[in-house]
Design brief:
The protein is of the alpha/beta class. The protein is built from nine helices and eight strands. The strands form two sheets. It has a five-stranded mixed beta sheet with strand order 4-5-6-7-8, with helices on one face. A three-stranded mixed beta sheet has the order 2-1-3, with no helix packed on it.
Length: about 290
């Protein structure tokens, strides 16, 4: 039995270990993947079974590794074993088409992990709110605090690099932090919530904007909470307005319905529109490109 400790390790380390195990033809039921600290010493392959001869070069579809890299960010302790079981099956000639079998239990489990991680990345992109903390030379500096469900910082960082290239920023999370200085991304260990900055004056502007765009006539509370779960509200400056706006929404809709209709604006004097109306009233076919 091989015991592989993955505490603090990620996809790249798993891939290297999987390659080693596959080369030695170690089956999935001969590997125990663990993340708990302090049980078997150092990270890596800890306990070896009887040595096996390498089984030659193993070929696995590249598309699997794209999915596996995403799934590896999930917090499920079963993910490493699942990924190795799939890559083992893909390495068998009789199961090369496994990824196309949507009903296979392992493929369904992989898809579940991938979907959960991608949804979490989407939420991070949507709900990170930067706070201005100062200037460095001619560049503004911003910091944000976010608590993702999964270990997605490295997968999500590229979005912020492209969108906020012109300012220096840091995103702090409990697992890992990412920093952009205008040149490169840097990753550092996670921090506590207390390391995040206090609210700044920009948040009042954001709240004013959110209040102005809130449409009570289109309010669907369950749908809103599905897209903006309450667990994210603590980090959103506009969240403190949500309860108030929901409570006021019915009255605002009633006021909108009771309001007198505004007078119709007079038709603009436009030769193009006049010609279209005349042709329509006269029963002629209209060619928008033919205006005499």
């Amino acid at each position: 039995m091989r015991v592989v400790r993955m505490e603090g390790l990620g996809f790249d380390e798993w891939r290297n270990m999987a390659r080693e195990l596959l080369a030695e033809a170690v089956p999935p039921d001969g590997v125990l993947w663990m993340e708990e600290p302090g049980l078997f010493g150092q990270n890596g392959v800890e306990v070896a079974d009887q040595a096996r001869e390498p089984n030659g070069k193993v070929r696995v579809p590249a598309t699997f590794f794209d999915q596996a890299k995403t799934a590896a960010a999930h917090r499920s302790p079963e993910r490493w074993g699942l990924l190795y079981r799939i890559v083992w099956r893909l390495s068998r000639s009789e199961e090369r088409g496994l990824l196309g079998c949507a009903t296979d239990p392992d493929i369904r489990a992989l898809d579940h992990l991938v979907r959960a991680v991608r949804r979490d990345i989407h939420k991070m992109h949507a709900f990170v709110r930067f706070r201005r903390v100062g200037m460095r030379e001619d560049r503004e500096q911003y910091v944000s605090w976010f608590e993702p469900e999964h270990r997605i910082v490295r997968l999500a960082a590229g979005f912020f690099q492209k969108r906020f290239t012109g300012m220096d920023w840091s995103i702090l999370t409990p697992d890992e932090c990412v920093h952009w200085d205008g040149t490169r991304l840097q990753f550092t260990p996670g921090v506590e919530r207390s390391a995040a900055p206090e609210p700044d004056e920009l948040e009042e502007l954001w709240r004013a904007y959110y209040r102005s765009i809130f449409n009570p006539a289109r309010l669907k509370v369950k749908a809103m909470q599905s897209e903006m779960p309450k667990k994210y509200w603590a980090n959103l400056p506009e969240a403190e307005l949500i309860g108030e706006l929901i409570a006021q929404s019915r009255g605002r809709v009633e006021d909108m319905l009771a309001a007198e209709e505004r007078p119709v604006k007079p038709e603009p004097r436009n030769a193009y529109l006049k010609s279209l109306r005349e042709r329509t009233e006269g029963g002629e076919a209209t060619d928008p490109g033919d205006v005499s």
